[in-house]
Amino acid sequence: MKDKSDYKDIIKLHKAWADRYMLLWYLFVVTLFAGISFLLDESSLEAAVKTNAYILLAVIVVIGAVWQAAGLTIARLHMLLEGVVPPDAQNQSSPPPDVITGI
Asked: Which of 47, 87, 91, 93 is deepest in the core (most CB within 10 A)?
């Protein structure tokens, strides 16, 4: 069994790249928002079309959360492959009951 430092190192490694990609994504989204907003203001489109465009752009912002989830998911897979047990799971004498069967 690996120690707590391995657990923290793996989390830091994957969290770091997830943060970098999220920062790049947000820079891209801000640039995209500015460009689309400028184009929509200069065009003679109806308000409904502009609203739909902004809703679509808002969905793009939510994708930033996917980078964080991906980073933590890959960190967990890395820990499983390396045999690293999280510190809170080391104190459990038996696995948690199955959600479906309750056993």
From this structure: 87
